[in-house]
Please model this.
Amino acid sequence: MAESEFRHDVCVVGGCGHVGLPLAITFASHGLRVSVSDINARAVETVRSGRMPFLEAGAEEALRAVIGRTLEVGTEPGLVSEARHVVVVIGTPVDEHLNPTFHTMRRFFQGLIPHLRDGQTVILRSTVFPGTTEKIRALLDRSGLRVRVAFCPERVAEGKAMEELVVLPQIVSGCDERAVEAASELFGTIAKSLIVLSPLEAELTKIFANVWRYIQFATANQFFMIAADHGLDFYKLHDALTHDYPRMAGLPRGGFAAGPCLFKDTMQLSAAYDNNFALGHAAMLVNEGLPNFLVKHAKGRFDLATMTVGLLGMAFKAESDDPRESLSYKLRKLLEAEAETVLCTDEYIRDPNFLPVEEVLARSDLLFIGAPHRRYRELSLPSDLPVVDVWNLYGRGTFPG
Ligand SMILES: NC(=O)c1ccc[n+]([C@@H]2O[C@H](COP(=O)([O-])OP(=O)(O)OC[C@H]3O[C@@H](n4cnc5c(N)ncnc54)[C@H](O)[C@@H]3O)[C@@H](O)[C@H]2O)c1
Model:
């Protein structure tokens, strides 16, 4: 980075979160002077002590190497004033109907204005509703500040951030040439290559990527349901479809399409397109309907009302401790309405209501697999314990025969 009057090269605001922290650590590992500003005091303390507040492969080791050296962390918004670049990765503001709430963003940036200084570059990294970057630029311009505004979306998958941040091309956009230059200089220190777009193009590109994945998962899940309604094992069909047939290589396997991004961003795109997004809504109905489908099928085979049902894996995906928007919780709710007792366990989420996996196995009459954590694959299940296995973790198809 060029010499500057700022104490830090970059401040990551929201930098104790799933996107912000791996990014801050990666910048710091590449020799930049980095600060993190986050309102979550508990997460800040955890990070300061060299521990990750959530699971992210390879991150804790890298954190320990930089904390107190090139990485400083705090709750003070004033840290923003001391950094040449300010990267903002607070959560995407949406309301309870998953509609974007620009006023939350506006309020956040109004609060940031007293801490910003002329000459800084503000880089949005949260996934945002199309047009947000230009609106923030207008807001900051009106305040009289001379700051550049850029949007550089995050495209890594949770759990793979440390690996992907340095190999995926980074999309860079800015409201003027100097913003593009500044953001390119910053991300050029870690990314393998840069792709320059306009802010609106970059905003839509990011959302399209998530929506595409969501629709792909929905396609697989719809096929899964059709096969099951014919009494067939979707995974047998999946193997046949994809074996030595490259045109079908992109067909995902079945399973819960959940988590904090895909569903929300599909609904954001719908809102940005006047709710005229039938494909996105269809994908939502399929993906969100999968737990209901599983319970309906199980009800057809078992007298759930007399059974203790065990649910293995509550995180939104395998090897994650992130419960946000996990469909396992929806499954639990549906099962609680039908079964006598529901017992839950997870390898990574700490919850006093969860039981050790051994106890769940010992007490359950029927199992459901919520998140396919690696360890569950290695369990030796009692041979008479039926399993509803949407992921085909045990290679026996989804429904017990
Ligand atoms: N999680 C993913 O895999 C992923 C991938 C790509 C993009 N995104 C996008 O990145 C954004 C952040 O997602 P996340 O998963 O990191 O969320 P997160 O909730 O894990 O992190 C957000 C962080 O921002 C902090 N924060 C909130 N308000 C703040 C404020 N006013 N000042 C300072 N800090 C504040 C929170 O304390 C939290 O630590 C979202 O827009 C999301 O859509 C997420």
Notes: The first strand starts at residue 8 and ends at 13. Residues 199-229 form the longest helix (31 residues).
